Structures are given as structure tokens and as C-alpha cells.
Amino acid sequence: MRRLLALVAALLALRPAALATDPYAFFDWDVSYVTAAPLGVKQQVIGINGKFPGPVVNVTTNWNVVVNVLNDLDEPLLITWNGIQHRKNCWQDGVLGTNCPIPSGWNWTYEFQVKDQIGSFFYFPSTGLQRAAGGFGGIVVNNRDVIAVPFGRPDGDITILIGDWYNKNHTDLRKMLDKGKDLGIPDGVLINGKGPYRYNDSLVPAGIEYETFNVHPGRTYRIRVHNVGSSTSLNFRIQGHNLLLVETEGSYTTQQNYTNLDIHVGQSYSFLVTADQNASSDYYVVASARQVNESQWRRVTGVAVLRYSNSRAPASGPLPDPPQDQNDRSFSMNQARSVRWNLSAGAARPNPQGSFRYSSINVTQAYLLRSTAPVWIAGRRRATLNGLSYAPPETPLRLADAYGVHGVYTLDFPERPPPASGGAPPRVARAIINGTYRGFMELIFQNNDTRMQSYHMDGYAFFVVGMDYGEWDEDSRGTYNKGDGVARSTIQVYPGAWAAVLVSLDNVGVWNVRSQNLDSWYLGQEVYVRVVNPEDSGNKTEMAIPRNALYCGQLHKYQKEQTPHHKMGVSAAVPRSSPAAGLLVSAALLLAGSFVFAP
């Protein structure tokens, strides 16, 4: 045992060190195709260790997370961690701007710390429309015991993944986009990878497997809901039960009850739900399409069941009604505005969230990012921000910087969109934003498309300070919320409307700003923000390149080859909360050759 621990300690010393006093959680994932039929049609989905969806990553503030990923797909893979900030460590972000994708048959180990974070997040594969095939799962970051939580301890914790779903494989969806086609109306909505309960015989075929959430009467549960779908906003509701909103994407919110809440693509919320109804029957759990023509989208509804332990009958009858405002967009926007920051609650640290007074900080950079419906550029259908459609280079941006490779990108992303008439035509570009370290940036998302969009920023939580219909102008700043705008990482932007956020650029790295709608992202609606500390020469504000970094593009010569080893056959690793137990798991993986380090 002593020799084993000494070996593991020596091997761990080769990697960039996180805080040695904080626990480690180790996971071993075989990412592969799995045959499933969630809507009754057999198809190829992406599973983790043979399961669809993937496992919940359950950790605590400041833990170190080590995830060894074997790519058992037939195409490259990256996993990104939606809402995890990767402080000083964009090398683990899992997007093409920072990482070379893991080749088919290879494995790569992510190692990052959930530094100063709490809350509800999720992970997913970030390239080639793969999220439309699965590969996603929830992330729970618990408070440390020494930090007070602004509500009583729940009796249980439930993760719910909702999302629109197509019966076509993601490779077929990709081909549709490459040919200039729309993806069309989804075939349905999944809840935790399962199809709808048969609430309507004409809409739901027999034999569909549905999800059941088992609860006990009188108990209260924390329910974490994530929209992991491709492009559809969903209204979430539980028949007969209030949803007490308490947190979104790492921020505690002011606590208020909702009978339903619109959850947009890429967003995460957590609620307290008390099983306080009678048990005469089970209750419907519903996620239905929003901001669409309801009569044409009836099938795009996910239905699960909430079952009391003493329930006496199955759920029956009509579903609980959605908001009656399919053509009145003000209800949804007002609901979004009602989500506010809890100023008195602590989060990852004991000081109140509201001690950071964002309204007193001067804005140093401002970008108005305008999206439109897809356009044709050089014979291909593309999506743009400010007239530019991003095309990922073969060499990741951050890796190019580290090795002094020039010409990979430009730092001239426009601060404003081109004029509606007489401006430069849309074009494909690799222009990114040059962020000022410790600056304070304003991002205004203007959605001039006819459908909902939502936008995400890696590496940060931004403050949502305003949204409204119409065109944003300088006077719009007078409507901003200057006190309790919630801090989160994904913001919805309604058609013909704008949303404004403020972000403190204190996290060095190259960070992705993207449309969360998969088709828009795939077609180029993204940009990167480069944040560099010009005074850091000793890795104080950014970690060094990981010793297992993958190399591609113009840096491919540095990459040592791996022998592809498909179908590893190792069972799922169990997370370990203690450093000693983590060493034992590490030892087994290292001795089995599962940890592979590139130069």
C-alpha cells in the first residue's frame, strides 16, 4: 500500500496542482453510442458508461474534479461544463477555442476545481451537434457545511433534464444544416432521456418508457431542472404543486412561488417542491414548447409522473394548462424579469451575494451583438453576430497564443453591428473580442430573428440587468436593474428584443460566447473573449498548459500518438470525497493505463 500511494503521489505531482487540502472526485467515463428508442423509434444516442443520460456529477464547493473520458464514438469529442467557471483554467473548458478534440478511440483526462461555486449546472458534448444525441448530465455543486443555505435542508435532491428531441441521428441533423435546411419541428420532448407518459392516446403511442419521480407525502425536495435540448424553450410545471424558486446557475434567488416557469435552452433552475397534495392519484410533470404555434407543436410535450408513496391511482385527465399567452410575449418576459438575486444570502462564501455592487462599477467595454435569421455566405447557410459567422480554426485559440502561432484569429470583432443598409456584407471570420483584464464589460444581445435565442458565456457569471422588446439604444440603459439583477451564465433573448448583461473580466483565459441553440451555434453564431493579464509571468492568474494537453492544427507535431483502445470495459468510477480514497481510484486507473498524458 505504501508503495502504491507513493507511486500515485509521484504521478499526481506531474499534473498541475490544485489545492491539496481540497477533496478530489474521480470519474471514469466511456462515451459511446447506445441504441435507444425514447420516442418509439430506434436510434443511435450518446451514452456514458452505457447509460443515457449520463451520471450526475455531485461535488461540493472547491472540490477537484477529475474525469477520465474515453472517446468510444466514431468521431472527435469534447465535453464542456455549462456554467462551471474554471477559474484560471480555460484549458479544461471543453470547446474548440481552448481544446483539441479527443480523437476517436483516445482518452483524455479533465481536471478542474469548482472554485467558489455552488448550484445547478450540466455538462454536454460541445462539437458537431452531438448534444442533439445525448451525452449530457447534471452537475450539482453543494455548499460547504460551514456556509449557511437560505432554506431548510430538503428531504431529497432530484435532477431533471428536459429537452426537445429528434428521431433523426445527430449526423443526419448535421447533414440537413450543411445542405441549408432547417431542422424543423422536433419529434417530441424527453424528460431524463425518456418519452412522454401516455396522457393522450392519439399523441403518444403505446409502449413509450416514461420517467417517474417517487416522493413521500409531507416531504420537501430540491428539484434541479436543466433545458439540455437543441433549440426549444420549454414551460415546466408540476400538476397541483408550487415551484418555489431558490437558485439559478450558481446564484441564490429571491424566493417566490411559480405555478410554471419558462426554461430556455441551456438554462438551469432549482426549486423546492413540497409533496403537500392528496394521494388520490399520481401527478403530471410537464415540459411543453413555448414561443411557438401551439397547434402545430402539440407533440412537442414531455410528460413524466410525480408519484406519492401512498398514491392510489395513475395520473389521468388533461395536462395542467400552460400559460395562456402563446401570442402575448409580455408574460414570459415579465416572468424572466421577476428572477432576482438574493442579496442577503451567501453562496460559496459567507459574505452576502449582494456585497458585490455591480452598479457602482464603471463599464470599460461595451459590445452590441446583433443576431439575425441565417444568411447565405459563399454558397453556404450561416448564422452571424454583427455580420460575422465564426469558423473554428484547426488550432485552438488559447493553444495558438501559448505557442506564439500567428494568424489563427484577429482581435477586431466589431463593437457594433453594421448598418442595416450600406454596411459590409456578412462574412465568415475568426475575429474575437479583446477583453481588458479586470475591466467591466457590457454585452447587449439584440435578437432580430423571428425565434427565441439564448446566449451563454463560459468562464463567468454575468449580471442580467435589462431586457425589452424593440431595438436597444443608449437610452435603454436608463431601464437597467441597478440593484438585484441575477448573476447567471445563460440569458434568453426574445424575438425582436434585446437583453443586456454586465460581466467583471477577472478570469484570465479565452472564453466562448455562443448561442445555446445548437443549429445557430453550429452555423457560426459564436465569438470568443480573450482576457490576458499582461503583468502575469508566473502563472499566478492563469494555470500552465496541462501536461496531458492534446495538440492539433499547426501544433500537431507536438502530439504523441495513442493506440486507439475502444470499448475499455471499465465500470463507472464512483466519486470519492476524501483525498486518500481518491488516490486509490487514481492508482487503479493509472495502473490500467486509463490516464494518458501528452507532452
UniProtKB/TrEMBL annotation:
Keywords associated with the record: Cell membrane, Copper, Glycoprotein, GPI-anchor, Lipoprotein, Membrane, Metal-binding, Signal
Region (Disordered): 311-330
Keyword Lipoprotein: yes
Native organism: Urochloa decumbens
Entry's family note: Belongs to the multicopper oxidase family.
Gene Ontology cellular-component terms listed: plasma membrane; side of membrane
Example GO molecular function: metal ion binding
Name of protein: Monocopper oxidase-like protein SKU5
